[in-house]
């Protein structure tokens, strides 16, 4: 509430200032339904904007009433828009069910968004209050400024449209002005000292000169006065204000002096007195401004920095060469051993001399008079101090550019040395090296929190959200819960890289972390690790069951392995507990899901046990039927055998009776050898 009042007060104070929204890029993130098996797999994707609403915006939730209409009528107020939220479209969902809003803050965001939109469209409420971050002011409705009737000029060329100092148009313009400045900076001393401006080419030089002057003039008269500027965090685009702001600056004075038309004295001194154009060299601020802008815009600003330093070095040598030629000309070309001997290309020879004297002592032409001694002393001093400084600067720039890589090398070397000293197996050492390399290629750092630590908390959180948004927006948990859960957790997520086959969690271990798959795939393995229970892909969550301690389960219920290379986010038990304390709905969702997995796993295990029992039972049945069959087969065999044996015995007896003249059946029956029952033999195997 307090913050609301403060913002309102500030806005009242800022009445003359117009505030612009940043580039209203719309987010295309639409809901995607992945073909994943796990509950925790991504289904829909809320837009980045909705989840990342600039923290300060969300936290303050300031709503400023639109009182601008009446004030504008009175011509008092230039305040136009105070926007609460960015103007991205609402998330699209694949099906109606997904589109149903949960009772979360996302819903609130959407409401605010639609309210914002409807206000924009309503004809009687043209002005919508907008609070904007100062990063990139882009006029929200340039047509508002277009007063050039009948002309359809691009915004940059329209003299009534304020200019975004970070926009492409302005940076391109700075490039043009910098080019003109460089032309003047190099050509004025060159033409003033060397005999390169002749009566034949004077006209050409003059055309180039005056084209540059036109650019200078346009810059001072039409571009710089329209530049929007930041005032207490608000972009001011009021024409009178921007003009006043420019005129207040020292740059304006230099810009005006740089346009002094001293060339009129050509009529008196002649067009060869190019030194009269010296004021053009005072527009140095634009040159610096251009480099600053490029430094901000380019992804590798080191190139710009090295380029600027090299420009200084070459320019100093150029000035030195011009001074050497001027002195030689003054003393008399080829008049002694020190001056330019008037042979070869004058500029190249003098430039060579200037480079040599600036970078080395000794083996240079010996000065022969006081002026030459003074020149050489100045050249050497410039070499020692200025050049040493500039070359040192280049070394620093390159060191800064490669610092991260140097740190990586240091870390890898240190680790390798340590492992070798411990005499660890070569395979393990290779694995560690592989992990270091992979983590580096993925993250370009080993601890990103170190990099962000210097930022204020909210900004750090916004950066982390922006960096990890593509993954986090796919996590179903964050979709189902309030957006603040994501903001609470995003800074606690620790990136983790896994190599192919790496064990992320082991069944039976005590759980300390929960994981989110950022990229790659992980397998949830069955108890015997022979079966894959689930494949977890980007946006999937796992390892929560042992953290929640459902049914007293504090240990991992399954083993999870990384399939190939995978990148995960790890969230510690303490951080999760702290977040769940304030997000009961998330705790409930996690618990329900965990319950579901536990039930599924239990059902699967019971099913497997039953299947095993069934298999055993059927094996037993088969065995017993086989046994019976064998037994019955054996009894048949034995009765037949017995019959066969008794028959043979009878025949033998008959034979012996015949031989001994005994009647068959006179003897006692012989003991019959019964064969062993097959079952006995089988069971004993
Ligand atoms: N059947 C399953 N499907 C998907 N994920 C599972 C399955 N079984 C276990 N998990 C996950 O694997 C994790 C192993 O550690 P936790 O028991 O802490 O939490 C477990 C679940 O997140």
Describe the structure.
- With 685 residues, the chain is α+β, with helices and mostly antiparallel strands.
- It is built from 25 helices and 10 strands.
- The strands form 3 sheets. A 4-stranded antiparallel β-sheet has the order 3-10-5-8. A 4-stranded antiparallel β-sheet has the order 4-9-6-7, with no helix packed on it. A two-stranded antiparallel ribbon has the order 1-2.
- Strand 6 (522-525) and strand 7 (532-536) form a beta hairpin.
- The chain is elongated, with a radius of gyration of 44 Å.
- 26% of the residues are buried.
- The structure holds adenosine-3',5'-cyclic-monophosphate.
Produce the secondary structure layout.
Blueprint: H1 2-13, H2 48-52, H3 55-60, H4 68-73, H5 96-99, H6 105-121, H7 168-193, H8 202-223, E1 229-231, E2 234-236, H9 239-248, H10 250-258, H11 266-269, H12 284-297, H13 302-331, H14 346-359, H15 370-401, H16 403-421, H17 426-443, H18 448-452, H19 457-472, H20 476-480, H21 483-489, E3 494-498, E4 503-505, E5 513-519, E6 522-525, E7 532-536, E8 541-542, H22 545-548, E9 559-562, E10 566-572, H23 573-582, H24 584-660, H25 678-683
Antiparallel strand pairs: 1-2, 3-10, 4-9, 5-8, 5-10, 6-7, 6-9
Helix pairs in contact: 7-8, 7-12, 7-13, 13-14, 13-15, 14-15, 16-17
The protein binds adenosine-3',5'-cyclic-monophosphate (CMP).
Adenosine-3',5'-cyclic-monophosphate is lined by residues 38, 505, 511, 524, 533-534, 542-546, 556-558, 560, 597, 600-601.
Region (Disordered): 86-107, 612-685
Subcellular location: Membrane
InterPro entries: CNG_cation_channel (IPR050866), cNMP-bd_CS (IPR018488), cNMP-bd_dom (IPR000595), Ion_trans_dom (IPR005821)
